[in-house]
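Case study B.
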Amino acid sequence: MKHKNWNIVKRIGITLFILILCIFPLVDTNSYHHIILNQTLVNVVVVLGLNFITGLTGQMNLGTAGIMAFGAYSSALVSTKLGFPVLVGLLVAIVIGYLLGRVLGFPSLRLKGVYLSLTTIGFSEITRLIITNWTTLTGGTMGLQNIPSISLFGYVLDSSTKVYYFYLFIVIVLCFTASRIIKSKWGRVFKAIRDNIDAVEASGIDVAKTKILAFTLATILGCLGGAMYAHMMNYVNPTTFTQDLSANFLAMMMLGGIGTVPGNIIGSSMVTILPELLRFLENYYWLIFSIIALLFAIFLPNGIVSLFTGDRRLGRFWITKTKKGESSHE
Amino acid sequence: MLKVENIDVFYGEVQALFNVSFEINDTEIVSIIGANGAGKTTLMKTIVGINKVRRGSIKYHGKVISNLAPHHSIYEGIVYVPEGREVFPQMSVFENLEMGAFSKKYTRGQFNEALQEVFELFPRLKERSGQLAGTMSGGEQQMLAIGRGMMSNPKLIMFDEPSLGLAPVIVDEMFDAIVAINRKKNTPVIIVEQNAFMAMSISDRTYVLEVGNVTTKGISSELLNSPDIKKAYLGG
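Model:
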């Protein structure tokens, strides 16, 4: 009974949240704010992907920047050099993401932990160096300019507000899909691989196939995020896709809460929006932001989302601390 | 039903099994005993496909299954319950059991049937179906590992050190359950144990492994009285 009520509360909460997001640009017409929100939406897409491979399956992927660069450049090149509509570019980015996942998934079958991290960093850096130096195709350090905005069957999304609504729609669809996948048997197998890979094998599950599936989900969403970024900024250059970017996405996932869609949303929003809110501190804003992030990491090791869930799976730092005197049995 | 013929198995360049042959018939319990490092676990992992065979063959119902990937051999009905209670600590008991049925395309009815069988075998698991597996006692985790293996409705089940690190009372319970699995469903059972006396007293036949070789094999009740076995494995 209690469970049922909780579900209703949750549904109403989600609907209200989406409504607020829909109304927000009408109330606040500052286009700078809209750009930051768009950036947040793009980041949510990428973090949802990263969550599958690093958050759930536990394979440390530090190549997010390279994956995004692939998506951004492929969509941008298809729409500028080949002159296809942008939607085709987005589709190409998704296909490239799929292929990339198949290829990039293979090292994860043989490599673990820090070695996999190094391999993915290597991939990311190689990608960045190629797009920096292949000047004839990618424009080198000058980047690709005049990337067309998205047009939906003739309706061009030329203002950040229009882009916002389109991206919001994509993100909502992806969030529901991702949470369905996490709750499905596949989501459970991802977590099982993180927790105990020997037992997964003994249960008769194809570990190789599952890992590659998780990687493919990550690269598809990463490439889509990259493409969305390219068409939002109308300009890409290689200096965006550095190791810092990969680390940033990891921070979003960790701070928000590993393995859950709300955690991913909270984390991406916090890491994207909070530094902007702290701009009034001028020279010190990044320092203060880092301290805040650090405090969250120390006191909420399972992410901000663990404040709201009563999920026993999330370690409750404070509660276990304060309850120490009492019986340790639940 | 399962016939292992003259297999050699290597870990890298180190040979772990030398020319091992082994056989199990329908409805039989066979135990494999031996000291640490004798190759007992290696043999099981090879049968299920986690280790690869370099020479020799493994036949299951006359079909060669050597070097079949684990998820395929489990599909054929061969289940391996690994040693050391390999459960998923962050999942509930129920979810762990669901994982065992993952490779099977069960309908809801078939799934519930398999679940009821496991709960009958281990009523404790039913009581605790909502609890996180990592918070249970060692014995309960071992029951869960066995239950998870049973969920895929095995045609052949292999237990690796089911008594490892358990209290004597629980060990008895565990062996009773293994015998019950064998009796009720006529499932052939292979059991690997350091606790040689226990394993031999419930099994029909026994193989003795020593540094990668089968040195002795025979009817368990006869081997129990053999002076050599007594001296080496049964403490006098």
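Chain A touches chain B through 19 residues (CB under 8 Å). The remaining cases will be described in the next quarterly update.
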